[in-house]
Amino acid sequence: MRIVVLTLFPSIVTGPLQESIIKRGQQKGLVEINVRNLRDWTHDRHHTADDKPYGGGHGMLMKPEPIFEAIDEICGAERKNWRIVLMTPSGKTFNQAQAREFAQNQKVLILCGHYEGIDERVREALVTDEISIGDYVLTNGALSALVVIDAVVRLIPGVIGDEMSNVDESFSDHLLEYPQYTRPEEYRGMRVPDVLLSGNHQEIAKWRKEQAEDRTKQRRPDLLK
């Protein structure tokens, strides 16, 4: 899989890509992640990537020219084979199902918004997906792009050693994950539930399902809809 991040602030993105599971996925050759500076496609000495909005208003907008030229160069004649994802507060809320869908694509370009947004012509002509990671506003889309990359890369077959961990975790079947425990059996008066020590895998599976359902009802009843 190939992922390209197009941003005005590459240094925000590059550090986390060299850690943990994302790093291992790259080392195994299962994913290639390139971070590109959008200012490389500007043509003035100040590398201007933004301008005032027509009609007035607060803030600045990202200009269309650098974005169009960058995507033309990166995607080339195969642009139709790319998922071009815009990180924006007005996008669809990102979830596990979307992460699985992206993980099945070979080429994903993530465009990180900044300032007050982007010229609408970019959205109309280039973007295939608009994604938000929640109902709040960040300084720019670089941090949210990292969230998407992390969620997607870990779903690529072979990246995580134990493939079943992707099956049992939260949101995989519209339920939050059940409570989990490790050694010691008792700590500060708190014991591991007896069923987990029983060795009865059928009863353990039943207990975990009940716990996941109860936790979801209490904390995220919207998922059960």
Give an overview in words:
- With 225 residues, this protein is of the alpha/beta class.
- The chain folds into two domains: 2-153, SPOUT methyltransferase, trefoil knot domain (Alpha/beta knot), CATH 3.40.1280.10; 170-224, Trp Operon Repressor, Chain A, CATH 1.10.1270.20.
- It has helices spanning 10-14, 20-27, 64-75, 96-103, 120-125, 142-153, 165-168, 194-197, 201-219, and strands at residues 2-7, 32-37, 50-51, 61-62, 83-93, 107-112, 129-132, 186-187, 190-191.
- Strand 5 (83-93), helix 4 and strand 6 (107-112) form a beta-alpha-beta unit.
- The chain is elongated, with a radius of gyration of 22 Å.
- The mean pLDDT is 93.
CATH class of the largest domain: Alpha Beta
Order of helices and strands: EHHEEEHEHEHEHHEEHH
Low-confidence stretches: none
Report the structural category: alpha/beta
Strands side by side in the biggest sheet: 2-1-6-5-7
* Secondary structure: helix percent: 25-40%
Quick one: how many beta strands? 9
Distance between the termini: 33 Å
Mean of the pLDDT scores?
Answer: 93
- How many domains make up the coordinates? 2
Shape: elongated
Briefly, what is this?
The protein is built from 9 helices and 9 strands. It has helices spanning 10-14, 20-27, 64-75, 96-103, 120-125, 142-153, 165-168, 194-197, 201-219, and strands at 2-7, 32-37, 50-51, 61-62, 83-93, 107-112, 129-132, 186-187, 190-191. The strands form 3 sheets. The protein has a 5-stranded parallel β-sheet with strand order 2-1-6-5-7, sandwiched between helices. Strands 3-4 form a two-stranded antiparallel ribbon.
